Amino acid sequence: MKKKPTLPSAPSIPTEQKSQLLAALLDEKQGEDIVVIDVTGTCPIAEHIIVVGARGQRHAQSLADAAMHLAKEKNFISFGMEGYDGGTWILVDLNDIIIHVFQDEVRRFYNIEGLWSEGKRVDAPTGLKRESDLED
User: Fold this and answer.
1) For residues 5 and 38, what is the distance between their CA atoms, to the nearest angstrom?
2) Average pLDDT for residues 54-73, to the nearest whole number?
3) Taking the alpha carbons of 136, 67, 94, 106 in that order, is the dihedral positive or negative?
4) DSSP string spanning 79-135?
5) Per-residue pLDDT for 128 more than 70?
6) Who has greater pLDDT, 13 or 62?
7) Residue 128 to residue 120: CA distance in whole angstroms
8) Please, what sign has the CA dihedral across residues 124, 130, 132, 136?
9) Which domains are present in the chain?
């Protein structure tokens, strides 16, 4: 008899706190110009969008890897990522949060922040102690 695959559980923390954890992690991994946008009610597929800059292909891939590792560690729902091999624009889909990892030129061209300008910008943490500050 085949065993059914185990699906990840629903996130155990609110989207706001989850996006702060992810933004802090991206900052810790030296992601550049991190922007968190609350698109609740305006985006049909996510509640928050995180946009982060990378210095090159390997840096972009390491940022995406770090986000996916945290998702697995915290048992967040994840639908995977796109664009990993090229590394110029990597989209990480974490169900209620979508992370766009861009190299600078591609980020300026697609202007995700402008596309979601009706969303509310959320202050992204910088220099935050990721785990200990948010769990207390």
Assistant:
1) 32
2) 96
3) positive
4) -EEESTTT-SEEEEEETTEEEEEEEHHHHHHH-HHHHTTTSEEEPPPSS--HHHHHH
5) no
6) 62
7) 21
8) positive
9) 29-122 (3.30.460.10)
